[in-house]
TrEMBL record:
It comes from the Bacteria. Pfam families: Phe_tRNA-synt_N, tRNA-synt_2d. Its main location: cytoplasm. This is Phenylalanine--tRNA ligase alpha subunit. Keywords: Aminoacyl-tRNA synthetase, ATP-binding, Cytoplasm, Ligase, Magnesium, Metal-binding, Nucleotide-binding, Protein biosynthesis. One of its GO terms (biological process) is phenylalanyl-tRNA aminoacylation. CDD domains: PheRS_alpha_core.
Length: 358
């Protein structure tokens, strides 16, 4: 029995002296493994006589339990120490400043498109789309441009290379061809807006070779200029967020409307600041008119049965007026500082009543 006590002291010392988990595992194998010291002694029990086996076996089991408990305890201590070391080294410094916010912004044109669609959508207009590359018929002929009209000439229109059949396609010079396509493919009543890129070979302070238009078209029986006026007044008041805006219709000319008019809205200019909806100044914002009978005929309609009105405006222009952007050319410079200044938060929702959240 003394021998077992000596062995216990030796083994417990080996356990507590093991410097790390690997060394401890070696101790365990040497004592409890298949050929370990206690395992060997267990095997020897078979050769003993029953009395001796009972007392020695009980003592040996007690020794084995003691050593196993010590091994488990030391192993747990190593694991706890390792975990603590990891927690210490992987600690997150919550006091570090956050990474810079790199959210992008919506371009003012995108924001204006969203707003215009929301306003006309509430008035019952559908959105129509069409190609940027158009044929001569949809861009000019159907819109009552006589042959030799200046807008057809090289300095205004981007022509594409001649095709095999001799036709020359163009980059659309306005969004009107989309409305021609709508009239060709549908029957009245029609209430659509179309908006998108348009192209003209022109570049200076107030012109860029690519710009955006929004146009509207209403075709039905008994449509008159009163409907046109009411529709535009509703739009202008919603878009500029003013009530009772003064409007004047000045006679004008477009090949595709008769009569044609340019529309001015009341404004004031005090110390260089433009205010829309008040004052005694006038600001031109769009062109409009009753759809020319020749246009209706080109689309297969009988001008004696149906009439309609149409209007068009430049998106950059109405964006500049609403958001105080002074220079048209900056819209297309892709200058990040400009975009951060004039851009809009991605989650801004255009509403008729709400202002902007950013
Ligand atoms: C402007 C003026 C306008 C139209 C566009 C139109 C379209 C069809 C038939 C008749 Cl399919 N008219 N569009 C009418 C009048 C004026 O635009 O100053 N735009 C920037």
């Amino acid at each position: 029995m003394d021998k077992l006590d000596e062995l216990r002291a030796e083994l417990l010392a080996a356990v507590s002296d093991a410097p790390d988990a690997d060394a401890l595992e070696k101790v365990r194998v040497a004592v409890m493994g298949k050929k370990g010291r206690i395992t060997d002694m267990m095997k020897g029990l078979g050769q003993m006589d029953p009395d001796e086996r009972r007392t020695f076996g009980a003592a040996l089991n007690a020794l084995k339990d003691d050593v196993a408990t010590a091994l488990d305890g030391r192993k747990a201590a190593f694991e706890t120490a390792a975990l603590n070391a990891r927690l210490e080294s992987e600690r997150v410094d919550v006091s570090l400043t956050a990474r810079p916010d790199s959210d992008g912004t919506l371009h003012p044109i995108s924001q204006t498109i969203d707003e215009v669609i929301a306003i006309f959508g509430q008035m019952g207009f559908e959105l129509a789309e069409g190609p940027d590359i158009e044929d001569d018929f949809h861009n000019f002929t159907a819109l009552n441009f006589p042959p030799g009209h200046p807008a057809r000439e090289m300095h205004d229109t981007f022509f594409l290379p001649e095709r095999e059949d001799g036709s020359r396609h163009v980059l659309r010079t306005h969004t009107s061809p989309v409305q021609i396509r709508t009239m060709q493919s549908r029957k009245p009543p029609i209430r659509v807006i179309c908006l998108g890129r348009t192209y003209r070979c022109d570049s200076d302070m107030t012109h860029t070779p690519m710009f955006h238009q929004i146009e509207g078209l209403v075709i039905d029986t008994n449509i008159n200029m009163g409907h046109l006026k009411g529709c535009l007044k509703e739009f202008v008041e919603a878009y500029f967020e003013v009530s009772d805006v003064p409007m004047q219709f000045r006679p004008s000319f477009f090949p595709f409307t008769e009569p044609s008019a340019e529309v001015d809205i009341g404004c004031s200019r005090k110390n260089g600041e433009l205010k829309i909806g008040e004052g005694d100044g006038w600001l031109e914002i769009l062109g409009c008119g009753m759809v020319h009978p020749n246009v209706l005929k080109a689309c297969g309609y009988d001008p004696n049965e149906v009439q309609g009105f149409a209007f068009g405006m430049g998106l950059e222009r109405i964006a500049m007026l609403k958001y105080g952007i002074p220079d048209l050319r900056t819209f297309f410079d892709s200058d990040l500082r400009w975009l951060r200044h004039y851009g809009f938060g991605c989650l801004d929702v255009p509403t008729l009543t709400g202002g902007l959240t950013r």
